[in-house]
């Protein structure tokens, strides 16, 4: 493992909701250490595709190969262990935990075992490492000044960054970011995306970026897939996509 | 006046024993409800399980050690009271055996309570909140009805007496003072354990599951295992509470293990104290124990000034507190506060090391 060209690959992936085919035989390829963008109008099936890959939904057909391993239909916590995490379009913070703890939850610690849990000496070294890592991540995304705030006190943009920092903290090989700049003002959105770009360059991590705001996000992507009504209608490097008539059609109409 | 005379005051003793047993049960409830968001409306189930161990198993073990009848006939009320009286006198002469029996009862109660808790995790993973609450509530009532109507386990409607594992301490009030302090000690250990859990990665994972189950799952938490584990721990602790209560009172009767006393009262204690906060449990249980004991002790006096039977005052109080807390202060007297797995100082130190010089600036920005 690790030698494959693609970190994530879906073969003929299908997800149906009753009669609606939300993901229609999608063949996605995410290259290692790239930002691959998945775009398309609302209802195109972008989030469903990610949910199906990460085990939140069970696929009705096809395969999901992650890092050379067939993870089709795995439950989410096992997908996490294989090194694939995702963020949520609508942030799902752990409301009553602090910002620091929100990040710490994403880091494994043997003190999660209820038998070891009451004896701090058995896991405090791990915890110290985790706290250090969490602060590094929080510093990177600019949330370090709020580390002891409970998450419900954060604003919308900050919650988005909290989502990203939880995902980063895990040291995952692939992070699917579900609209990390949705509802964020353009200046801050640029800030978030350039942060992600920088992370990609410094760490061995790949991103699957789900976005429908083509104008802001496109310059940051290495490769783009465009979905509409469950199917991939175009793929290519950003410049090709920008001028692809099918894409223009979907976005601007006839 | 010796120290045992001060504590032998029945008012104080009642408050202390109600506090100690109430604390164990409420702590267990808080682990399941406050930390893991499981609608545990069947707390009485494992409490009864524990009391049943004290009533149906402890006495039988003692009886068989001394070569007395320990089968079905043990629970026969015509035999039981004479037999247990004899066993208690024998136990009083052997502190070692008494303490062994106390510990053994707690261990068996914890194991059986844990098993029952684990069995509850089957519906707990498959039912939505309200349905699960009703299911757990029904479980508790079913066990109570079975034990109440089936004589061979623990005497059915007649109940059973329990050989006294505390009589070696002394006779009369001394026994009750000693027993109360032993149970109080165990309750404080349970409290300390719950606090350690709260300040551990395990407690953090439970709270993460409570706040956002889907996100917890995506970040590697196995919801199935987490729920099962907390139900096992909660069940085991509650069963120990039930067993201690039965051992203290020296008798067991299924009818005293009602959902009112062992489910709804602990809920009221928990809600008053502050769901999710162990220290809140201390406060909630203490306030309730004092008020309940006062009402109970001064029943006659109160009865002469209010137009209703003061027996109902206790029940009304619980209802009133639940309503008042839900309306005016849903977070309880002591709301949940952030707790950290490491000492705060250590975290600050790591923070300084990571952030370096920017620290002054960032401190200033903090609200």
Summarize the structure.
The complex is a heterodimer of chains A (254) and B (367). Helix content of chain A is 35%, strand content 24%.
Describe this protein with a few key phrases.
heterodimer, A: 254 residues, alpha/beta, Rossmann fold, 2 domains, six-stranded mixed beta sheet, five-stranded antiparallel beta sheet, 9 helices, B: 367 residues, mainly alpha, ABC transporter involved in vitamin B12 uptake, BtuC, two-stranded antiparallel sheet, 17 helices, 75% helix, globular
Biggest beta-sheet profile of chain B: 2 strands, antiparallel
The oligomeric state of the chains shown is heterodimer
What is the terminal-to-terminal distance of chain A? 46 Å
What's the helix count of chain B? 17
β-strand percent of chain A reads 15-25%
- The percent range for helix content of chain B is over 70%
* Net shape of chain A: globular
CATH class of the largest domain in chain B: Mainly Alpha
**Overall geometry of chain B:** globular
Walk me through what this model shows.
The complex is a heterodimer of chains A (254) and B (367). Helices cover 35% and strands 24% of the residues of chain A. Chain A has helices spanning 46-53, 76-82, 99-105, 124-141, 156-169, 186-202, 214-217, 238-242, 245-252, and strands at residues 6-17, 20-26, 29-31, 35-39, 61-66, 69-70, 84-86, 174-178, 206-211, 223-228, 231-236. Chain A is built from nine helices and eleven strands. The termini of chain A are far apart. With 254 residues, chain A is of the alpha/beta class. In chain A, helix 4 crosses helix 5 (156-169). Chain A folds into two domains: 3-91 and 170-252, P-loop containing nucleotide triphosphate hydrolases (Rossmann fold, 3-Layer(aba) Sandwich); 94-153, no CATH class. In chain A, the strands form two sheets. In chain A, strands 7-8-9-4-10-11 form a six-stranded mixed sheet, with helices on both faces. In chain A, strands 1, 2, 3, 5 and 6 form a five-stranded antiparallel sheet that branches. Chain B is globular and about 70 Å long. Chain B is mainly alpha-helical. Chain B is 75% helix and 1% strand. Chain B has helices spanning 3-7, 10-35, 43-65, 77-92, 95-124, 129-149, 151-154, 173-198, 201-211, 213-218, 223-249, 259-273, 278-297, 299-305, 311-328, 344-355, 359-365; strands spanning 160-161, 251-252. In chain B, helix 2 runs antiparallel to helix 13, helix 3 (43-65) runs parallel beside helix 6 (129-149) and helix 12 packs across helix 13 (278-297). Chain B starts with a helix and ends with a helix. In chain B, strands 1-2 form a two-stranded antiparallel sheet. At the A-B interface, helix 2, helix 3 and helix 4 of A face helix 8, helix 9, helix 10, helix 11 and helix 16 of B.
């Amino acid at each position: 493992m690790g030698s494959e060209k693609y970190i994530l690959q879906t073969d003929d992936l299908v997800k149906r909701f009753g009669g609606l085919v939300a993901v229609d035989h999608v063949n996605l390829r995410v290259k290692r250490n790239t930002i691959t963008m998945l775009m398309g109008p609302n209802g195109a099936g972008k989030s469903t595709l990610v949910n199906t890959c990460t085990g939140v939904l069970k696929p009705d057909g096809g395969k999901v190969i992650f890092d050379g391993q067939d993870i089709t239909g795995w439950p989410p916590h096992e997908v996490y262990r294989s090194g694939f995490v995702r963020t949520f379009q609508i942030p799902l913070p752990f409301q009553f935990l602090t910002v620091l703890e929100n990040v710490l939850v994403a880091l494994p610690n043997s003190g999660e075992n209820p038998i070891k849990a009451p004896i701090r000496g058995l896991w405090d070294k791990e915890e110290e490492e985790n706290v250090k890592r969490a602060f590094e991540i929080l510093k990177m995304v600019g949330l370090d000044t709020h580390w002891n705030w409970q998450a419900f006190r954060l604003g919308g943009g900050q919650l988005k960054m909290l989502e990203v920092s939880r995902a980063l903290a895990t040291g995952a090989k692939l992070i699917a970011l579900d609209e990390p700049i949705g509802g964020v003002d353009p200046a801050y959105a640029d800030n978030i995306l350039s942060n992600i770009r920088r992370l990609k360059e410094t760490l061995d991590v790949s991103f699957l970026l789900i976005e429908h705001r083509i104008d802001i996000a496109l310059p940051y992507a290495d490769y783009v897939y465009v979905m509409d009504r469950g199917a991939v209608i175009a793929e290519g490097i950003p410049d090709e996509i920008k001028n692809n008539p099918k894409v223009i059609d979907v976005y601007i109409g006839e | 006046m010796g120290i045992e005379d001060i504590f032998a005051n029945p008012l104080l003793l009642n408050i202390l024993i109600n506090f100690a047993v109430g604390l164990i049960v409420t702590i267990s409830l808080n682990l399941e409800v406050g930390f893991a968001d499981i609608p545990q409306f069947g707390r009485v189930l494992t409490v009864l399980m524990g009391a049943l161990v004290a009533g149906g198993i402890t006495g039988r073990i003692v009886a068989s050690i001394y070569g007395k009848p320990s089968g079905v006939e043990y629970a026969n009320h015509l035999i039981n009271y004479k037999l247990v009286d004899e066993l208690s006198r024998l136990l009083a002469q052997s502190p070692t055996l008494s303490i062994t029996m106390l510990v053994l009862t707690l261990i068996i109660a914890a194991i059986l309570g844990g098993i029952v808790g684990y069995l509850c995790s089957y519906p707990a993973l498959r039912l939505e909140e309200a349905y699960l609450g009703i299911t757990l509530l029904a479980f508790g009532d079913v066990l109570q009805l079975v034990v109440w109507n089936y004589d061979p386990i623990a005497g059915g409607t007649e109940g059973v007496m329990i050989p006294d594992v505390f009589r070696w301490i002394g006779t009369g009030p001394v026994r009750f003072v000693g027993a109360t302090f032993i149970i109080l000690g165990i309750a404080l250990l349970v409290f300390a354990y719950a606090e350690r859990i709260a300040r551990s990665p395990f407690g953090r994972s439970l709270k993460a599951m409570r706040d956002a189950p889907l996100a917890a799952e995506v970040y590697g938490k196995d919801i199935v295992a987490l729920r099962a584990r907390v139900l096992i721990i909660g069940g085991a602790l509650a069963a120990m509470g039930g067993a201690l209560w039965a051992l203290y009172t020296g008798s067991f009767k299924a009818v005293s293990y009602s959902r009112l006393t062992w489910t709804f009262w602990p809920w009221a204690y928990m809600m008053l104290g502050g769901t999710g906060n162990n220290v809140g449990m201390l406060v909630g249980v203490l306030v309730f124990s004092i008020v309940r004991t006062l009402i109970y002790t001064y029943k006659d006096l109160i009865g002469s000034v209010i137009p209703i039977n003061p027996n109902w005052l206790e029940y009304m109080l619980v209802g009133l507190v639940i309503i008042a807390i839900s309306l005016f202060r849903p977070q309880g007297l002591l709301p949940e506060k952030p707790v950290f797995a490491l000492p705060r100082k250590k975290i600050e130190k790591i923070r300084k090391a990571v952030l370096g010089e920017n620290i002054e600036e960032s401190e200033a920005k903090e609200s």
